[in-house]
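Continuing from the previous page of notes. For each protein in this section, the sequence appears first, followed by its structure tokens. Read the first protein now.
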Amino acid sequence: MIIELSEKFADIEPEEWNNYHVAFENIINAHRMGWHIFAPPRKVANRISKDCDLSRSQKSIFDSHVQDRITTLLGQARSADHTIICIPDSMPVIAERSNQFALPISKFIDPRNLLPFLLITENAQNDGVFLERLCLIFSKHLGYQSPMMLEHRHGGGGTTAAQYREALTDYRPTLCVIDSDRRYPDGPLGSTARAVRGVELHNTTRVVQAHILPVREAENLVPLSFLFDVYGTNPNISDTISKIHKYKNSDVAKCSIYNVLYFIDFKTGDTKGSIAKIPMPYKTHMLNFCSFIGTRKENDDQFSNPECDEKAVPGISENLIHQTISFINNNGRLESSLMRKILSAPFWDELEHILRLILAFSCGGQRLPV
């Protein structure tokens, strides 16, 4: 992440710099490692070089790779969606711009808070890597040049909230992004999302944040038309996708008050019993969907039986995200096609906010050869 300093550092007494030299050395080291980008104002940079008791090696790095590149670094900071701004401990912790997350400089006396950005998801190898891949594709679309620096943390469903609670005890830049597990718009969140939201109520910093996906699961983010490419060689799965895709373009879908496809289970499918539990009017549109794809016959009373475990909505694949990631990795030329399709999705505004946060939090540099 880009770390700025308040202009107020230029006005503090020389003696006060002694309180901050460890924090500055840690920030400079994070810049050297490429984990974060240090972009202090020009006047403050001059004060650091003059008054801060840096070690010889850290002063050399600061003078050569921060102060000598100050124009470029400040340009990056001004164009970033979000940055951290550090404030002298003797002054109120208030940001100078609305896109800055303010912290007292002393929080970086602990070097662990300057480790690379941490992304917590329920499944790091699938959900986490997929979000990272979407961010890389989106960054190309935006013309970003900075590399992404991040560490994935596997939440493991039931323990995701505990991982997030632990993150809140520190000030390491962290985002926790989880499935909503909602069955319909504004429906109840799943247990993991509820647990994380409960922890979030105690959050006092913007450097650590939790966000819930605008769809049921990460799988619902993948456009159906792109899944045709992913599963083009599998006739059984392609047939399932084709049925669902025909619904997407039908008059039945256009008359629906919500997009059913953002709330079905693409991994294992949905049973008639689970649909029976959906309240009206949402249930009506789910029943219309099932009728369209041929899994509901007229007067089928099993859709009123919450105990019925007969499949009503076929799943596509339990490994959908993993297989989509592998397909993208092997067919890079289709990245722009995927991005265009996601950009046109109704959930894009909410997803864009999450992707831009990940890009801002993970904004790093090249490791310096010193």
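Done with the first. The second protein uses the same format. Note its length before scrolling.
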Amino acid sequence: MARYVGNDWYGTFKGVSLAAIPFRTFDDGLEEEMADASGGSDAIRNYVKTLDKVEPSFEWVPDTGTAGTAADAVLEPGQEGTLLWGPYGSATGSPKWGVVCRVVKATPTIQYDDVVVKAVKFMVVDGAYVFDGRTATF
């Protein structure tokens, strides 16, 4: 796989571009959960995949411009919608991810000698992917 940089990242929440604002980090929080399937004469533990766990998080520098104001309005606790993202951007053939989620936390970090950074945490509210980037593309 070719290397890529964070500024290629594409993301929207409720139709508002998250890539157009000064974002710092995005973590899809994708983790496979496993169940212990050991038993009988097994000499070592073995596991089977159960569900995916997806808990996205996003950090950005709040901006008073038009894009920042629109993002600030949707990145507040209680907001629900579709979160779409593409780690390599949105070019044709790039992996496309999407889940319906709710903003459960939006915390600004205010430091005396630095810019304010807002950390946003999402929780999935629908038990299915809108787009699964392992198979879905732009």
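What the second structure shows: The chain has a mean pLDDT of 92. The helical segments are 66-74. We return to this in next week's lecture.
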